[in-house]
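Q: I'm building a small set of examples for a reading group on sequence design. Run inverse folding on the following structure and report the sequence directly after it, with nothing in between.
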């Protein structure tokens, strides 16, 4: 949930863990420290893609999304490891627990980064001293490095944390934007991807400073509402509050994957759709969520993105049902072009326990089986009162903080697809 609020004299920290997956592996196995390591979805598959890599690997020219075979060619001694999501969840949970010892105003935005609002800091320390202490505690207590940005709002704090990696602490004030931020190319701006950067370049905007000084009408014509938002950000304006509850405001559950090569084989594509559908269904089940809208995302070899969706009267959450819908959507809309990325998403999700399923030809039989029970319940309610007996609800277990973090695997896959520079 976005909370917009006008405030003054705010102090926001953005904590960004450095090469998180690789750092967790090096912490778990100290023999990996100082070595070039990479996490790959399938380390044994030559066409597999790197999820992340250590800074030692980056120094050898290895980078995220590089194929396994190319990474091994550049760095023969590269150590490839499969992802261990449980290990990363535990580390993430410990990281955010540590941040909450400073304030309850902590907003996770992914498994390895979050905002901290220290505007009401009551400690006998400066904000920079607190940032230093947080960084050192994460390193000594959890053996995990991080970079920290300090600024008067979330956008500038996020930007600042990217300026010095690894283990940097950067203060970014509005008065410093013309020197530190405006000269950078538009693609370096948080919130600007390749597609948006191309649109900005096409209207003559090359740097972040160009966005800051551009006519708002020109930006809105090219990018809609996002144009106004980017102009504000480029001028250091961002009134969003740090919202500790935003992590729980799930509107959709999805999963996407970048394919190891441009794919046209229908059998392989069907396997990918099935795998994605089952992953999404698994997450829906773990949260007891369901949604009426299913969509697929397709990115072709030329990086053209398209999506198709379908909505239903009843909620979707079962894996085979989700796969059937997703595959039908894909089959009807794929134009035969080589595919680079596929995604499956269920949106407008709600708690299944709070939703009354609509009776249809698909669930009539199920309801019919319950009819004798429903009649008994109705008679008891008539005799003893409506609240005397009600339909039971499955208990939705809250995440255990003893061994797992409270973050869904959505965070993990988001990180996998977009791991930072």
């Amino acid at each position: 949930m976005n909370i917009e609020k006008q405030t003054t004299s705010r102090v926001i920290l953005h904590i960004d863990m450095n090469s998180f997956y690789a750092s967790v592996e090096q912490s778990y196995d100290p023999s990996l420290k100082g070595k070039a390591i990479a996490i790959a979805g399938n380390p044994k598959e030559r066409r597999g893609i790197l999820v992340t890599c250590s800074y030692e690997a980056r120094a050898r020219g290895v980078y995220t999304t590089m194929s396994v075979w190319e990474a091994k060619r550049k760095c023969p001694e590269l150590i490839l490891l499969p992802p261990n999501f449980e290990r990363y969840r535990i580390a993430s949970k410990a990281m955010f627990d540590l941040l909450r010892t400073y304030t309850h105003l902590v907003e996770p935005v992914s498994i390895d980064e979050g905002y901290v609002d220290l505007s009401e800091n009551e400690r006998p320390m400066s904000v920079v001293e607190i940032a230093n202490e947080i960084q050192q505690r994460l390193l000594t207590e959890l053996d995990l490095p991080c970079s920290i940005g300090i600024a008067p709002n979330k956008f500038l704090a996020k930007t600042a944390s990217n300026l010095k990696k690894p283990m940097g602490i950067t203060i970014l004030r509005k008065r410093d934007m013309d020197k530190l931020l405006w000269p950078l190319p538009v693609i370096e701006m948080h919130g600007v991807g390749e597609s948006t950067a191309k649109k900005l370049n096409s209207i003559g905007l090359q740097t972040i400073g160009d966005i800051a000084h551009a006519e708002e009408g020109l930006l809105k014509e090219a990018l809609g509402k996002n144009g106004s938002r980017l102009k504000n950000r480029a001028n250091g304006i961002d009134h969003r509050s740090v919202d500790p509850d935003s992590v729980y405001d799930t509107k959709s559950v999805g999963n996407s994957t970048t394919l190891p090569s441009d794919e046209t084989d229908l059998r392989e594509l069907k396997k990918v759709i099935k795998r994605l559908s089952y992953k999404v269904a698994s997450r829906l089940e773990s949260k007891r969520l369901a949604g009426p809208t299913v969509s697929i995302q397709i990115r072709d070899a030329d990086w053209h993105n398209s999506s198709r969706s379908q909505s239903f009267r009843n909620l979707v959450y079962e894996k085979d049902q989700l796969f059937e819908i997703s595959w039908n959507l894909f089959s009807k809309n794929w134009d035969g072009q080589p595919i680079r990325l596929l995604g499956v998403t269920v949106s407008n999700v709600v708690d299944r326990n709070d939703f009354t399923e609509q009776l249809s030809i698909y669930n009539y039989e199920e309801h019919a089986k319950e009819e004798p029970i429903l009649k008994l319940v109705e008679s008891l309610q008539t005799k003893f009162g409506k609240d005397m007996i009600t339909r039971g609800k499955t208990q939705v277990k809250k995440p255990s903080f003893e061994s797992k973090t409270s973050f869904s695997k959505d965070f993990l896959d988001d990180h996998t697809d977009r791991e930072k520079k």
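The longest strand covers residues 252-263.
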